[in-house]
Design goal:
Layout (H helix, E strand, L loop, with lengths): L3 E5 L3 H13 L3 E5 L5 H8 L3 E5 L7 H11 L4 E5 L4 H9 L4 E4 L4 H15 L10 E4 L4 E4 L2 E2 L4 H12 L4 E3 H8 L8 H18 L6 E4 L3 E4 L2
Parallel strand pairs: 1-2, 1-3, 3-4, 4-5
Antiparallel strand pairs: 6-7, 7-8, 9-11, 10-11
Helix pairs in contact: 1-5, 6-8
Length: 222
Amino acid sequence: MKPRILLVEDEEPLARILGDYLTHSEMDHRWIDHGGQALEAFREYKPDLVLLDLMLPGVDGLTICREIRKVSETPVMMVTAKVEELDRLLGLELGADDYICKPYSPREVVARVKVVLRRLRPTSRPQDSLFRCDEAAQMIYVQGQRLDLTPTEYRLLRLFLSHPGRVYSRDSIVDLTYDMDQEVTDRVVDSHIKNLRKKIARELPDREVIYSVYGVGYRFEI
């Protein structure tokens, strides 16, 4: 069965071009050009992924994303011309799986859609064949080799392993990884990520798994 993509975009030329690319990539799609129709279309169409513009007539994309997250874990990719960091963080904190800024390449959008959909498919190689987390011992193994992690690095990697592919802002990393009474700056988070990358690279020298998402934070892919 072809993947179903709900495209919520009020700019008709963009929607038609992107729709053509989706069709060419063997994906079905339904186009909605008004925010007020998006949630009803979501319930009826039952998409595998939502491509959601932020600025829409009727109901804005952030509200739509919030309502979808109340009832579903269906991936949501926000597509918007608003590039301010606050908008990025807010969109991601509401549960968006990716954030694409206009102007964009339709080919890149489709490629990123495929990456998100690929994460949803069962694979012949389970995740723990590469990474294995022993929560009782607070240890993580890569291809059977134990990583020499600090407690903070362990919590960081455990967080990434719990939701591979999800983008985490630095603020959300602090909230989910560090103690409440710790004063943690972005530089501290970046330093821990740098050290974690080095330790993983010793076991996986030809493979990158922690990606920087410009202006937002980090994403873990395996």
